[in-house]
Amino acid sequence: MQINTSADKFEMVAKTYFGLEKVLARELINLGAADVEVLNRAVRFKGDQLMLYRSNYCLRTALRILKPVLKARILNEKELYDAVREIKWSKLLKKDGTLAIDAMVKSKYFNNSLFIAQKAKDAIVDQYRDTYGIRPSVNKDNPDLLINVHLTERDLTVSLDSSGESLHKRGYRVENGDAPLSEVLAAGMILLSGWSGNKPFYDLMCGSGTLPIEAALIAHKVPGGYYRKNFGFERWLDFRTDMFNKIKQEYKPQFNPIYVIHGMDISHEAIISSRRNAQQAGLSEYIRFSVCDLFKTIKSSEEGIIIINPPYGERIKQEDMYTFYKKIGDALKNNYQGYDAWILSSNKEALKYVGLHADKNITLYNGQLECRYSHFKLYAGSHKTKYLRNKA
Ligand SMILES: C[S@@+](CC[C@H](N)C(=O)[O-])C[C@H]1O[C@@H](n2cnc3c(N)ncnc32)[C@H](O)[C@@H]1O
Question: Is the C-beta atom of 267 inside 6 A of ligand 1?
Fold first, then answer.
């Protein structure tokens, strides 16, 4: 079934990481999306052309926004070819345009995503050759039209990828550091914590500064796509510059110096990277970066939120990581009473040695690594008994 994409409102799918679907759905509702439906690692919603631009420009927890143009049930590769050939590609791609295909296959009937991508490409190229007498060329890195082919069992969905490069590429990162978090994951972690700029924010192990920078973007209402040079939809044939400019005017950052955001790290190089990234984002004056050993820091305000992504210790002896995580727990308990602390780690054994009671545990993925994102309420004084000490 070819989808009527010229209708006022059409279906879109925002892709995200496992565990961030609900925060993404909330973001979409806040932006005015209709019929928002949580899926696995994605959220389906409806909206118009403005919503397509708005979602790409504003969302923090979406990786890409797809616009389905065809759904079909297929029995074999020939049917896939026929279905893709039915789409009026000349309305979507200019005569001398370039294309690329991303194929995702989860099927017991079809198992080769490269072959599926190849078949889909043949269908488009053949239709072009018949219509114009020329073949559009493939440009994997920088195509005019990025096409997403998704096959679940026999259900085929062909979508236009309106984002182009993944939206985690915000455009401010100039330094990677050791093991940087994806910007989308970092923003998702902050939104999951409920922090919105209402109290001081601390990342005591900030590496290249992803969490403090994303926190600053949230606090100052800087759209997720504010620094990006381009989006896939800007090269679509129906792109409307006036409409996109309207969105940019509507979602202007609101810089306000009241929010205190801190990024600290024991590594001098890490703080240099953080500062460079923040500077690139024009956020230097809103984040205080300093070289500090977490174990020697003390709180500088009565309340606050701490979000840390400590080393997971893949290359370090597990016993040493237990001691390291125990020291983190002790430092938080002794020096940050009254705060909320969140820790993301794939080292679930070591996390137990933090020795505090986690009242929330959320499963997230940092790349391929399954992680636990745990919340600890650091009660002050009389609530000390709330702490649980695991036997180390
Ligand atoms: C996994 S990296 C954090 C990556 C960061 N979230 C990012 O996006 O770039 C862990 C960081 O912990 C820092 N670290 C290790 N021990 C520390 C300590 N005792 N105090 C402060 N930072 C420490 C390391 O220097 C490293 O930058």
Answer: yes
Q: Are residues 145 and 215 in the same domain?
A: no
Q: Is 240 domain-assigned?
A: no
- Both 214 and 156 in one domain: the answer is no
Q: Domain check: are 91 and 124 in the same one?
A: yes
Nearest Cα residue to atom 26 of ligand 1: 207
- Residue found by looking up tokens 């065809």 in the block: 70
Same domain, residue pair 280 and 324: yes
Residue 300's contacts (CB-CB under 8 Å, 6 or more residues apart) are 200, 262
Separation of CA 177 and ligand 1 centre (Å): 10
- 200 and 148 part of one domain: no
Give residue 108's domain range: 10-161
If asked whether residues 272 and 206 sit together in one domain, one would say yes
Secondary structure string (H, E, C) spanning 120-170: HHHHHHHHHHHHHCCCCEECCCCCCEEEEEEEECCEEEEEEECCCCCCCCC
Does residue 2 fall inside a structural domain?
no
15-47 burial: b if 16+ Cβ within 10 Å, else e: bbbebbbebbbebbeebebeebeeeeebbbbbb
Task: Give pLDDT, residue 7.
Answer: 63
CA of 202 to the centre of ligand 1 (A): 13
Residue nearest to atom 4 of ligand 1 (CA): 207
The Å distance, Cα 288 to ligand 1 centre, comes to 16
pLDDT digits (tens, 9 = 90+) for 304-350: 999 999 999 877 777 799 999 999 999 999 999 999 999 999 999 99
Ligand 1 atom closest to 273 (CA): 9
pTM score, whole prediction:
0.94
Count structural domains, the chain. 2
